[in-house]
Amino acid sequence: MPRTAESHRRPNLILAVVAAVGLEVLLIALAIAWVAVYSLLISPGKTIEDYEAHAEVSSPVVSVAAGVVCFFFAGRLLRRMGQPRGFHTAIATGAVYVVMDAAIIAAAVQDHELHYWLIAASGYAIKLAALLFAARSVARDAA
């Protein structure tokens, strides 16, 4: 099939799913690493319950703070790897990530309070903005 303008707009869905899963795994690993650093270096000697409580509070912060950087570089990489479909692949990656992460949060959060979803929604907006800004900036660099 010859390449058309329409085929340039179709995302690479396999790459989008792989990137979204990779970002999810990376952010979970960074949250675990933060709790390890906290428990071993910053505040050693507390009970497991204290560290679990800290993880519950700090994980969303780590996810957003590290997520901005991770999603920015992922956006740049997706755009460079997927020329000319990279921007659309970045959009698909963001969509897959949001659906996957929301499912994880829904399964993990027992009381489904509104503040969990507000934190998640603001984190999604910030991460997706970084992803799309980076993917779009690579297009400007190439032009």
Topology:
Elements: H1 5-9, H2 13-42, H3 48-81, H4 86-108, H5 114-142
Helix pairs in contact: 2-3, 2-4, 3-4, 3-5, 4-5
Largest sheet: none
**Which stretches are low in confidence, meaning pLDDT under 50 for 5 or more residues running?**
none
Q: Work out the helix count.
A: 5
Number of strands: 0
What do the pLDDT scores average to? 87
The SS-based structural class is mainly alpha
Structure characterization notes:
It is a single chain. With 143 residues, the protein is mainly α. It has helices at residues 5-9, 13-42, 48-81, 86-108, 114-142. Helices cover 85% and strands 0% of the residues. It has a domain at 12-28 and 64-142. The longest helix has 34 residues, at 48-81.
Keywords:
single chain, 143 residues, elongated, mainly alpha
Give a brief description.
The chain has 143 residues and is an all-alpha fold.
